[in-house]
Amino acid sequence: QVQLLESGGGLVQPGGSLTLSCAASKGTFSTYGMNWFRQAPGKEREFVAGINWSGSSTSYADSVRGRFTISRDNAKNTLYLQMNSLKPEDTAVYYCHAELPLGGRVWGQGTQVTVSS
Q: How confident is the model at residue 14 (pLDDT cuts 50, 70, 90)?
């Protein structure tokens, strides 16, 4: 069973940047569709960005389009989320999510991103 481990979260000022990483162990990372979700306090978990198995297709929530970039390196079994022009409303726990070929779903444990001055 694939395991996902996020890293790269932290405290950043408004307008700043962060890059999140999600390292996959076990399984076959290069066959998975991958996503980033986030959950702010008191709110439901929401989709942020997604990428297909090859990296040739990406999608974004309207709230982050143009500011965030999702990418992957299948040779390194790693998913990334480059976040620019961060806003206080981007504060949340960010989760890595894998879509397995036979329909399974796997979540990482999450990494906290706080945007504050």
A: very high
